[in-house]
Amino acid sequence: MAVLPPPLAYGEIGRMQAGIPDTITGSFAAAVARAPDGPALHYFGSTLSFADIDAESDALAALLEEGRLAAGERIMICLQNVPDFVIGLLAAAKLGLVIVPVNPMYRTRELAALQRDCSAVAIIAHDAFLDDVASQLESPPRLRFAVSPTDRQTEGLGVLDEAAHARVADGAVRLGDALRAAVGRKPLHLHDNKPEDTLLLVYTSGTTGEPKAAMLSHRNICAGGWFYHQATALEQGQPILGAAPLFHVTGLTGHLALSFAAVAPVILCYRFQPDTILAAIARHRPTFSVAAITAWSALIEHPAYSREIFGCFSTVFSGGAPISPAIHARFRDKTGLLLHNVYGLTETSAPITASPRGAEIPVAADSGTLSVGKAVPGTTVRIMDEQGNELPDGERGEIVAAGPSVARAYWYNDPATMASMRPEGFRTGDIGVRDANGWVYLVDRKKDMIVASGFKVWPREVEEVIYDHPAVREAAVIGIPDEYRGESVKAVVSLHAGASLDPAELIAFCKARMAAYKYPRVVEIMDELPKTVTGKILRREVR
Description:
Shape: globular
Largest sheet: 5 strands, parallel
Radius of gyration: 23 Å
Distance between the termini: 56 Å
Helix content: 25-40%
Strand content: 15-25%
Strand order of the largest sheet: 4-3-5-6-7
């Protein structure tokens, strides 16, 4: 059994020294050495140990090797939160392949664009996805493995809608059958991964532009896992609720990389369905999770929620979308837990700012914005102007980050790389401000700024006021053309169940609480606002 060094002190997380594994294969191997029979994944009544995952990923690596896949080639994994995602990722990493995690909700046009960009030669996807989407590509990947979401399910903690889809697309192999036939096999040649090697291409469009792939290295993902480990003080064997999708960086670092670093099991529930998630929490009693505020809100507002169900959590994080002070307070009132705010992007693979565990999170006096935390130890976060000059505390500018979790480039996209990956660090495109105590406040996206009658209006500042109205559940503020003002402010909102609200009432509510040029002139009420899979409201879709 490998002898591991003691955990890093919280302030040493950025250095990744003293023998701490900084490849995902090394981190996983260390977990297997520490607790081979320890639970690694829980999925609808079935449990896989770290040794089970090691053996199955070896078998799949042997099959991929047999298919003549070479180090550096790309493999798409288009799966929900199922054990085969983890097995596929590790099998690919053992061969030095580059993994391209893809949202299985994508359709043919979206998948085709990504495949053309990354030239993927293999795909692991749900059988329904392969049949309905991947088989329609002009040049389907030469290796195609189909995964049934019910293949490892032994108990029904929820309904898997795709379970009825039993057809396997032409040219595809059912992964479960292939693995059962390959039991005990190992690849002939394991790749000697280096920390700087690209592990993942994660596509991001944020909320503003065309997709581009951040090249995330082994070190990037491991740094994210060790941040979560130290920030949560998770102990070996304490379960992690896999609430975020594994095809997103939050799930990759805050669930999987954390699992390997802490030697702790992840609870997988296929996809986010509040009743299923609540049942899994009651059964497995997780200690930690990270999810978007929309996910947390859906859980605590569900009829099956009770404060006792959440009694197992010691630490909970929220990232992916801003949290209003009103929603933050409501979560604490209903759960008794302090929801720790974190902020990061796909390109940073993990949070670059976080609220220290147990710390009260301040609210900016001028804007009413809840802080997104302080710079993560080992990561430099600065507020800078367009010329790359650092601004003093209290001044608004672009948030720029540098550290071990930050990507170095975009995949074959030199213009985007040169624009964002600067010598001073990664330019996030987000406007923020830092106070004298190091707390960072997110103002808004640069591209989302509204100019009304010559005045700058940051949509998030208006949204914070709107969230104070008791009927409002979700809000998005956008600029609309206005012949007189240039732009006017429009608010699109959804309401809490059973609530009613007249648009004129919300306009008057905002008018009484902010400058005349800021309050919304138009209010539209919708049942649901469009969101990313991680719960971030898509302003461009609202527009």
